[in-house]
Write a structure and sequence with these properties.
21% strand, four-stranded antiparallel sheet, 455 residues, globular, homodimer, 13 helices
């Protein structure tokens, strides 16, 4: 292990400078004009994985963006780790809130700032470079496979089919994923719960054209007012989602489980201060960490309609729209929830407008068993590096494909992420601490060692 | 009068082609990049009014866009008509819904299509050309003054001061305005009521940056959800505006007045068909024409927040905003209503967000007395041309400056507009019928004749 540490120490500046090259590629999967960047990014990663020591690496086409697959087989009888990550990133708007160009990474106060610095380029790069260090020092104790996709931020539409087609190639004992966060550097944690997601888009149409709000105001249903009312009705004053049947399949924790869950260190004052809010809000009867960890939620992700430019325009818009997503918990099924949402939204719309409801993407919630060998190996590796046994943590986020891995490939996933809340993923000025990057690099080879030894 | 008619007949194609030159100037007052177009448009009009026969015409600077002033004094003892119009137009978005370029006028099926074709370039042009015809045939029976502003669509912020500064120059017996519509070509009408306007912009701010909707969803107030709820609360299920005190000053019509008001021809089926809506909506207990004519209303003119682009982004927006305007009726005061709105909006906002409320512009409601000489002259002129006595009509629209004219200049306004609902002012594909333009041209000189004779 000392050899690996020395190799990392001797090469760490190069690792960061290579990561900068990766971050410079604006691989935004949600925006079709970035299609060529996706290909470029995949080719960059495949080339780097071969340099790092892979026996082979390929950019494999899908109906969407390509998947980078690479592997190094040291011994067919050894344990196999399948590393999953994603090279696509979120859109950058509102761009004007970025202090520097989102695709020209900088280091400021020990943190790398760029879109994807954490999510997920920074995190997958730790795996690529830990792999390089183990290969270079001849200390790789497991077979390793890499599967890096370019569509995670849009719901991994092609990866399900990819997994079905390549079941054999992807055989492994565990899927290793760094695409999550820890509670803090002082309180390391392993994510063992992820919420599911049902992401919808709704459109309310009133008159067949924009109307003069003076001539028609008061006599015609205004789609923007109607949309506001419909959105408002989706959550009641106690923070409950009002879609009938929404809570039917929610797994309710026992009082003992809830007490254990609430033992995770959490400061409400620090939370409010960090977000600059006077008060939190959410479902009555649950704590803040329960509200994101074990309870489902409903949020408007975008809303638009009418005149939104400078000055005034006295118009009744013909249409108004919203993107609305629901985070789901075990055992909610996003397909059922999407249907319930659609039926409810149509039911509450008045006769004076027409509505369309589309399900844009979705994914199932996921739970990692804390007694599987990979979990225990990760627990030891993190304890070695951070000096503390990591807590099991339920994240509010979703990685829809993780539950897909289990159902298609029959392989459990281990989520050892080194992100922090302050990384501001999906937000302007996303960043990743160099210390997070280096601690991750140090932890990963130890995980391999303990996981291989546990066989 | 025959001479005037012949002159118009001989020159009508040129009148339309000159109007096209005026319509080609994209004089959008709400968008500051069009500032140079405002100046250009004003200079065009001043030059044309001199050509038409004005003794003098000037482009008079204000703090905002210039005012075009022109006059022809035939006899200090004759009656004086002050023609008011505006050369600014509304923004054109959604631009993709225009069948042709909004600033490249075309005639299709007897209608001129362009932004401003009706509102108000087409309508003011009838006055300019009627004036030219009367001057050219030496039959102008009154003194005429023109005051054409470039800020009507943004609430005439500079014209109030302009009127205060130039009271003497603007002295007149009546202000003549064509910036309104008739019920139909078969049912001519004179607008004798205009609603007032209070136009607000609200912003709801939650966390200090956009947040990941998975990590924070359910635990933090989402400004877009909160905005939707606040907007929804502004109007109750019976169509009443919930702002306390909102209805305090509303003049309530007597049953006799309401019966007279509802005698105007109106087909609900045709109204719904024209707008392609299955049902109308509005304040309980009032008819559709009452809802826009004699009752106040509240509409969202624009709403925006979060991710509104292609695909999905799982974000809790830091801010969400709306433009909300209220149409007012006698004797509501827009300043009082703006204050009541602001107080109420702040009061209903939860502690988990911050709100800002700005009053963008406003104006008072206005009523024209139907027994004044100018009204009676207009009634006769319209009856001559349309073959029917015009009905007094209460429009839902607002021309805030009209009540300003009365309070500053002490002059009543006469609103003889030749627009129709199908002109779709403020909407894509705004148009103005050539028959409307020509009938207006024919009516105006008759009005001058009867008004002068009535002295």
């Amino acid at each position: 292990m000392d050899q690996v540490k020395h190799y990392v120490e001797a090469n760490k500046d190069r690792f960061v400078s290579e990561l900068f090259d990766l971050l410079r590629i604006p691989s935004i999967s949600a925006q079709s004009e970035h299609r060529p960047d996706m290909q470029r990014c995949a080719e960059f990663l495949a080339a780097k994985l071969v340099e790092a020591g892979a026996d082979r690496a390929e950019v494999m086409p899908t109906e969407g963006n390509p998947v980078v697959y690479a592997e190094k087989i040291i011994d067919p009888k050894a344990r196999t780790v399948l590393v999953y990550g994603h090279y696509d990133v979120m859109p950058v708007d509102p761009r004007e809130e970025w202090r520097t160009d989102p695709f020209e990474p900088v280091v400021e106060q020990g943190r790398i700032r760029a879109r994807g610095a954490d999510d997920d380029k920074g995190q997958l790069w730790m795996h690529a470079k830990a792999f390089e260090a183990m290969c270079a020092t001849d200390s790789l104790p497991c077979n390793v496979k890499f599967m890096l996709e370019g569509e995670e931020e849009i719901g991994s539409p092609s990866l399900y089919g990819f997994c079905r087609e390549h079941r054999k190639m992807l055989e492994a004992d565990v899927i290793l994923v760094s695409d999550t966060s820890m509670i803090s550097m002082d309180t390391p944690s392993i994510t063992c719960g992820l919420r599911g997601l049902a992401y919808m888009e709704v459109e309310v149409t009133g008159p067949n054209k924009d109307l003069h709000s003076g001539l028609f105001g008061g006599a015609v249903a205004n789609p923007a007012n109607v949309l506001a009312r419909l959105v408002a009705e989706l959550v009641d004053e106690r923070g409950h989602v009002t879609v009938p049947g929404f809570y039917d399949d929610v797994r309710v924790l026992t009082p003992v489980e809830r007490r254990a869950f609430n033992k995770a260190p959490f400061s409400l004052a620090a939370y409010k201060r960090a977000l600059d809010i006077r008060d939190v809000a959410g479902e009555e009867g649950f704590t803040t960490i329960e509200r994101t960890g074990i309870r489902p939620s409903l949020d408007v992700n975008g809303i638009w309609g009418g005149y939104t430019g400078e000055g005034t325009k006295t118009v009744i818009p013909s249409k108004a729209s919203a993107k609305i997503s629901m985070r789901l918990v075990p055992n909610q099924d996003y397909r059922k929830i999407s249907k319930l949402f659609e039926r409810h939204f149509r039911a509450i719309a008045p006769k004076s407008v027409r509505v369309t409801v589309k399900a844009l993407h979705g994914g199932m919630p996921y739970v990692t068993p804390t007694d599987m060998p990979a979990y225990r190996a990760a627990e030891r590796a993190i304890a070695d590096v951070f000096g503390k046994r990591p807590l099991p943590f339920y994240s509010g986020g979703s990685i829809p494909i993780i539950s897909g891995f289990e159902s298609i490939l029959g392989i459990k996933s281990l989520l050892i992420g080194f992100g922090l809340a302050e990384d501001a993923i999906h937000s302007p000025n996303e960043s990743y601490g160099l210390d997070q990057f280096y601690k991750g690099l140090e932890t990963i080879p130890l995980f391999y060692k303990y996981f291989a030894a546990g066989k």
